[in-house]
Write a structure and sequence with these properties.
Elements: E1 5-6, E2 29-30, E3 36-39, E4 47-51, E5 54-58, H1 73-82
Parallel strand pairs: 1-2
Antiparallel strand pairs: 3-4, 4-5
Length: 83
């Protein structure tokens, strides 16, 4: 079996992209990512996550110790499934 394609070194020109093809490559695509998560100390249930240049925050409802300023971790997971 062939090695998966490097997902970070693929064409980005419209028409040449994998998503523009009728079928995905049989060997698959590898897109490993490193994600960092942390609890923000002193802020109840506030958490911070980063991946590359992006940063997100999550919180919980007040009834379980949060401030409800950001979406809950489970809300982010649900959104991810939808995307």
């Amino acid at each position: 079996m062939e090695k998966p394609l490097d997902g970070f070194n693929l064409p980005d020109k419209v028409g040449d992209r994998i998503i523009d093809k009728p079928e995905l490559p049989a060997q698959g695509v590898n897109t490993d990512s490193t994600v960092y998560t942390e609890i923000v100390v002193g802020e109840g249930q506030l958490k911070r996550g980063t991946i590359g240049k992006f940063e997100v925050f999550s919180d919980e409802a007040a009834r379980i110790g949060g401030t409800d300023r950001y979406a809950s971790p489970m809300s982010y997971m649900a959104m991810g499934v939808g995307f």
